[in-house]
Structure formats: C-alpha cells, structure tokens
C-alpha cells in the first residue's frame, strides 16, 4: 500500500509526498508538525474533504486501525 499526500497541512501543495506502508504493521513517529496526525486522520476518515488531493493504493486490501485523538473523542467522550 502506498499513501500519496498533497495539499494537506504540512505536506507540499504542488507535489505528492509518497509513503510506502507495505509492512503488516507500521508505526509512525516523528517530531511535532511532521505530519503523523495528518496520516492517521486520513486513515480514520479518508472521505473528509481535507484529503481530496490525497490517494492510497490498494487500501481495500487492508484494514487500517487508527488510535488517535479523533478516535478517542468519538468513542470516549459524551456527545452532550
């Protein structure tokens, strides 16, 4: 699977940044502002309009599991 990010948060607006995610388990780490949350948010909700210029090959062959801030907010906090 290859993730191609463009025109979203810290990623270039004019060209794709390509990230290979071929391993069965992928762990993302890096400095603040490096784009870790952008990647996890894409997999959490790829249909979000923020990701209209982003692509992921073979995503239907995988089931990404995302545990990020958005997941916690959606599943562990009252909506009231």
UniProtKB/TrEMBL annotation:
Pfam short name (any one): AAA_13
InterPro entries: CR006_AAA (IPR026866), P-loop_NTPase (IPR027417)
Domain named Protein CR006 P-loop: residues: 9-78
Protein name (record): Protein CR006 P-loop domain-containing protein
Organism: Salmonella enterica
């Amino acid at each position: 699977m290859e993730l191609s990010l463009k025109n979203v948060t810290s990623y270039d607006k004019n060209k794709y940044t390509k990230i290979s995610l071929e391993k069965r388990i992928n762990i993302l780490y890096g400095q603040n502002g490096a784009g870790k949350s952008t990647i996890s948010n894409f997999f959490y909700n790829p249909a979000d309009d923020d990701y209209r210029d982003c692509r992921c090959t073979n995503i239907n062959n995988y089931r990404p599991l995302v545990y990020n801030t958005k997941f916690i907010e959606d599943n562990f906090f009252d909506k009231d």
